[in-house]
Amino acid sequence: MKLIGFPEGTALGGVGFSLAGDAPTGFSDGQIADLDRFLPALALACYRIAALRVATDMLAVYTGSRTSGRILNGQTQRGDGTAIYAAILLADLKDFTSLNERYAPDRIVTWLNQHFEVIGQPVEQAGGEILKFMGDSLLAIFPAEIDNPTDGCERALAAARMAMDANDTLNWKRVDAGEPAIPIDIVLHVGEVFYGNVGCTRRLDFTAIGKAVNEAARMEKLCDNVGRNLLASAMFVSCVQADFEKVGSFALKGVAKPAEVYGLPS
């Protein structure tokens, strides 16, 4: 057994080699000397493979698997990206600001993680990618075909419904434990977005921006006004088979044309 340590500064400690031979007397002194010269080079190759695997896995945790692949393939310059068509899911935890006034930060963080977990799992299971956690909100996209976005929209709707159900279950458990329930509002939209690097020279964010994202954010503010926790745009509703009903036409801040907004019955 031969242990060779990796360079300091990483979470990787080293690599162990276990070698066996079929000679009755084992390895000769010359063979052992050769191995001592050869194994450090092999360890270096192992280090490179392991470091890349760890970097890939860790980057996927922070940016999502689809985004991490783009970054590792060289999309690391500000402005690098592409226009894609996608269904958009924006989820926001209700009344979270007031909870910060009443509870300790460690409890707030625990609850926040619990809700993001039950919202995020359905998104990933439905083939979506979480792009950003923004305080008490979550932004996810489901890439879709511009000529036929039905599949992407159906997957986004399925994720939204599963997330709402899972969040309700979590709240029932929390109330039983004497803790506050935290409902969520979800908005669904579809459109073209810029998917790529935005930021300053030394600090980039790989995200989605564009008119459709802005409209989804504006629509989320309507949830309390219309008494619905799940809203969708007219464009999104036209792409799915669901019992949406129109709740009104609303002027969205910064958007020239009023938006027709639909909701699912409570």
Provide mean pLDDT, rounded: 84
Query: H/E element string?
Result: EEHHEHHEEHEEHHEHEE
Report the total helices: 8
Main sheet properties: 8 strands, mixed
Quick recap of the structure?
The protein has 266 residues and is an alpha+beta fold. The chain is built from eight helices and ten strands. Strand 6 and strand 7 form a beta hairpin.
What topology emerges from the helices and strands here?
Layout: E1 2-5, E2 14-17, H1 29-63, H2 65-72, E3 81-93, H3 96-102, H4 105-125, E4 129-134, E5 137-143, H5 150-176, E6 184-200, E7 203-209, H6 211-220, H7 223-226, E8 230-233, H8 234-237, E9 245-250, E10 259-263
Helix pairs in contact: 1-2, 4-5
Structure description:
Strand 6 and strand 7 form a beta hairpin. This protein has helices spanning 29-63, 65-72, 96-102, 105-125, 150-176, 211-220, 223-226, 234-237; strands spanning 2-5, 14-17, 81-93, 129-134, 137-143, 184-200, 203-209, 230-233, 245-250, 259-263. The protein has 266 residues and is α+β, with helices and mostly antiparallel strands. 44% of the residues lie in helices and 27% in strands. Strands 3, 4, 5, 6, 7, 8, 9 and 10 form an 8-stranded mixed beta sheet that branches.
